[in-house]
Design a protein that fits this description.
mainly alpha, three-stranded mixed beta sheet, two-stranded antiparallel sheet, 16 helices, 5 strands, flat
Length: 427
């Protein structure tokens, strides 16, 4: 049949997305080499039941004639063939909304009447040869999640689009699906896409509050109807009941009985309150994010300082000790000069010992962020006890090294606190 006589099924996009990426290119290469081997399933008017991707590729490749198999069936059976053939060929489709639509159709087509049981299981029509498990397997979901998936069909189109886009999780979406369409529209008008930022617990609480508002509105409507009936009868014995009804209506709705709105005041108040809470939550989250960014800057500065210390440590470690001073044998006869050289030599060795100690301190400071405060304190105290203080002229330098060691200890403690704060903020 000429490809120009064919047309996609109007429900195809509701049930399945077009192939993309490597899967589509692989099918395209196969058709380009071998042609279309499996006929497209169509209705007598050219509506495609199975073969939408082959139809797309044939148009891209300029194929004018395609093999077809014509099915003269009812619209309901045609829709079933559309789903059955695609489930067999296409495999997994991870869009929850498309799964929900397919599950709903199959349950209706097979006569499976799903009802929630006492333990979240399902009961189905005893006359149907199919069960809820068959529906779940057909669309690729676990039977325990079938009710949640099918409940998504009760969402308004705007919320369904958020689910398909992966912005609104199925658990939160199910909670919203229990609300009336009017309440869902009012909620979406108030929050927009911000509704996707709410946690499951928050969404469940929102549902509870809005359902309570809806119940108050239904109760008010019932009382208003009873009040109108009593007023119409005009009996004296009904006066007490009329006054009681008027008081109850004011308590529930706090509005005149004759006032009518599409969305109840109670629902609107709950939505406005929820919107204010959402703004406060976003403000708190923004403040935490700013604090986290500032801590990242501080951490980077500390890391850079540690790297500099490590580089200095390596430089000191690689520095070669100069050769011992050579003294002529005749120098021994010059006692003052010999003593001066000996003092210089001793001072030099003390200086090298100090550098080695500093090397240990620098190395330890670079690792303090990975040990506890107690371990860091013990190491510093050990260095203080072992540090040599032989020459009187070296006491001032020893004090400098002690101060450096204590500074390293404070740096280590500060770094550990910063890391702790960062971990808390990230969690």
């Amino acid at each position: 049949m000429s490809i120009h006589r064919l047309k996609p099924h109007p429900k195809n996009e509701e049930y399945y997305a077009d192939l993309t990426g490597e899967k589509y290119e692989e099918l395209k290469r196969s058709i380009e080499v071998h042609g279309i081997r499996d006929p497209l399933k169509i209705l007598p008017d050219g509506t495609i039941l199975a073969g939408h991707q082959r139809y797309r590729i044939a148009k891209e490749l300029g194929i004018e004639q395609v093999p077809v198999a014509i099915y003269d069936v009812s619209p309901e059976e045609a829709e079933y063939l559309l789903i059955a053939d695609n489930e067999e060929r296409r495999g997994e489709d991870n869009d929850p909304m498309r799964k929900a639509r397919r599950a709903k159709f199959l349950a209706e087509y097979w006569g499976v009447k799903l009802k929630r049981g006492a333990r979240n299981d399902f009961r189905q029509n005893d006359e149907s040869p199919k069960t809820a498990k068959d529906v779940a397997e057909a669309v690729g979901v676990d039977a325990s999640n079938l009710h949640r998936i099918m409940k998504l069909n009760d969402l308004i189109p705007e919320l369904q689009a958020l689910v398909s886009a992966g912005k609104l999780g199925t658990t939160s979406a199910e909670q919203l699906a229990y609300l009336s369409p009017e309440t869902q529209r009012a909620l979406y008008a108030a929050l927009g896409d911000e509704i996707t930022a709410r946690t499951v617990a928050e969404t469940r609480e929102l549902r509870r509050r809005l359902e309570e508002a809806e119940r108050r509105d239904r109760e008010t409507a019932r009382l208003q109807q009873e009040l109108a009936t009593l007023r119409e009868r005009g009996r004296d014995e009904d006066r007490a009941r009329i006054a009681e009804l008027e008081s109850e209506i004011r308590r529930l709705q706090n509005r005149p009985p004759e006032r009518v709105e599409v969305v109840p005041d109670a629902v609107l108040r709950e939505i406005e309150d929820w919107k204010r809470r959402a703004v406060e939550t976003d403000r708190e989250r923004q403040a935490l994010e700013e604090k986290y960014e500032s801590l990242k800057v501080i951490l980077q500065q500390h890391q850079e300082r540690i790297e500099r210390l490590k580089a200095e440590n390596a430089r000191l470690k690689e520095g070669a000790e100069p050769a011992p001073l050579k003294v002529a044998s005749t120098a021994k006869t010059v006692d003052p000069e010999w003593q001066r050289i000996e003092r210089e030599k001793e001072s030099f060795h003390e200086l090298m010992q100090a550098y080695r100690t500093l090397h240990k301190i620098v190395s330890a400071a670079a690792d303090f962020i990975f040990v506890s405060d107690e371990e860091a304190e013990a190491f510093i105290q050990k260095l203080m006890r072992e540090y040599p203080q032989k020459a009187e002229t070296w006491q001032s330098e020893a004090l400098v090294l002690r101060q450096a060691a204590m500074a390293m200890e404070r740096l280590a403690n500060s770094l550990e606190r910063q890391y702790t704060k960062l971990r808390l903020v990230k969690s």
